[in-house]
Specification:
CATH topology of the largest domain: FAD/NAD(P)-binding domain
Bound molecules: flavin-adenine dinucleotide
Strand content: 35-45%
CATH superfamily of the largest domain: FAD/NAD(P)-binding domain
Largest sheet: 7 strands, mixed
Distance between the termini: 59 Å
Number of strands: 28
Structural class: alpha/beta
Radius of gyration: 22 Å
Low-confidence stretches: none
Shape: globular
CATH architecture of the largest domain: 3-Layer(bba) Sandwich
Length: 409
């Protein structure tokens, strides 16, 4: 079949992009590999989702349900149990090849939205010596066991990494009756959101050991213990190892956008975001008509902003033919999205999503266009784990630059 737009992935990003495109009058197909739409939120049973978007604290499944209901009500066609294996360019759009129980098939569209989410870094991507017995899980896999399958994968738990999913699982496992011995973080500062540190560790008396890592796993069939050690500023273990008996090691060491599909179009992955470079409507800077949204584009800390940027893409589908792209230059930032600005289509506001490489009590973000300072925004308590979202209003013809620096310098 042929559609105006095909969306790959029925998580909150894909569903919201589909809703917005459908409401703009486009024919839309959403393709999802899992049996049910909703993405990773199906297993996030804790609350705290949707405070910005809906003004209420929803659980992950409730947020996913609202997004799915809205996409269906708008008339988006959703195919589940269907895995996209390949995407390619055609003369006027894209071809999407899939496999499902019904066999292999393909559909075509004028525009394509990648909403494939992110995956976790695995224990194999961090250096831990020893065996790989049962009982070494990523935080997401552990969340899946506990929340979707009703299984408790361990009773004495060590958590490596202070990412949000690890913190949330520290609380979840405690509530389910397991003993969480501690969270070990190699960096000198925690990686998770401050609210998760308070609500998931402090409220349950779970210790956070900064500048510590797990160096060894012991056990043949099942984890019996791990060794933990202090690390220096280069994260190299120093000093004595302490043996901590446990039957579960949960690894929460970061998320990476899932991006094999864009690579099949020959697109490069941006080193800082691990997604593709886009303009302010989330359209690829290199392939017109291709969009990337949600965690596939860059890892967001709040699903509310996943939905926001996905809706921006959905509304834009099929609107622009010519673009005047300007690269967003940056100073003092880890990254900024969008990496390009279509100067011919600047709206009332352009939203920039960015991360700082450093901690600041007080900082200032300045936007320069065509060499002139256009807008300034003061921000407080800036932390690398927390994304900054700043709307700027400006016009530009040939240059855009965003600078983050300490306030008052
Ligand atoms: C394990 C885990 C736990 C998380 N917990 C939280 C949390 O507690 N709170 C929070 O705010 N955020 C959490 N996040 C971040 C969360 O991913 C975002 O908040 C939000 O779900 C991102 O939405 P998304 O639509 O971009 O991605 P997802 O929700 O991941 O949806 C992507 C969808 O694309 C589908 N897909 C991928 N590749 C293909 C393909 N080739 N063919 C067909 N379908 C495909 C996937 O099956 C999935 O349904 C978590 C992330 C992970 C990985």
């Amino acid at each position: 079949m042929r559609y105006d737009v095909i969306v790959i992935g029925a998580g909150p990003a894909g569903l919201e992009a589909a809703r917005a495109a459908r409401e703009a009058g486009k024919t839309v197909l959403v393709i999802e590999r899992e049996a049910r739409a909703g993405g990773i939120l199906k297993q996030c049973v804790h609350d705290g989702f949707g405070v910005i978007r809906y003004g209420e604290k929803l659980t992950g499944p409730e947020y996913a349900y609202r997004t799915l209901t809205a996409a269906k009500a708008a008339g988006a066609e959703i195919k589940t149990g269907t895995f996209v294996t390949k995407i390619s360019k055609t003369a006027d759009g894209f071809k999407v090849e899939t496999t499902s129980r019904a066999g292999m098939a393909s559909d075509e569209s004028l525009s394509l939205i990648l909403a494939t989410g992110c995956r976790e870094r695995t224990p194999r991507q961090v250096d831990i010596h020893g065996t790989r017995p049962a009982g070494v899980l990523t935080a997401g896999a552990c969340q899946n066991f506990v929340n979707l399958k009703g299984l408790l994968p361990g009773k004495r738990v060590v958590i490596l990494g202070s990412g949000d999913i690890g913190l949330i699982m520290a609380r979840r496992l405690t509530l389910e009756g397991a003993e969480v011995i501690g969270v070990y973080e190699a960096k000198s500062t925690p990686s998770g959101l401050e609210r998760n540190l308070r609500q998931c560790l402090d409220d349950f008396g779970i210790p956070l050991h900064l500048k510590h890592t797990v160096t060894d796993v012991y056990g043949q069939k099942r984890v019996e213990a791990v060794a933990v050690s202090a690390v220096d500023d280069n994260m190299t273990p120093v000093g004595e190892k302490t043996i901590v008996p446990c039957d579960l090691l949960v690894v929460s060491v970061g998320l990476i956008p899932e991006n094999e599909l864009h690579e099949s179009l020959g697109l490069k992955t941006a080193p800082a975001t691990k997604g593709i470079d886009v303009d302010q409507y989330m359209m690829s800077a290199d392939v017109p008509g291709l969009y990337s949204v949600g965690n596939a584009l860059h890892v967001h800390d709040l699903v509310d902003y996943v939905s926001e940027s996905a809706a921006t893409a959905g509304r834009d589908v099929g609107k622009r033919r010519e673009r005047n792209l300007i690269k967003t230059e940056t100073e003092g930032l880890q990254y900024v999205v969008p990496q390009y600005i279509d100067a011919s289509a600047l709206g009332e506001k352009t939203i920039f999503y960015m991360r700082s490489p450093k901690y600041y009590k007080k900082a200032v973000v300045r936007l320069y266009a065509d060499g002139e300072l256009k807008q300034t925004k003061r921000v407080t308590n800036v932390r690398p784990p927390e994304m900054l979202r700043i709307p700027f209003s400006f016009e530009a013809e040939d240059s855009v630059r965003i600078v983050l620096e300490e306030d008052g310098v």
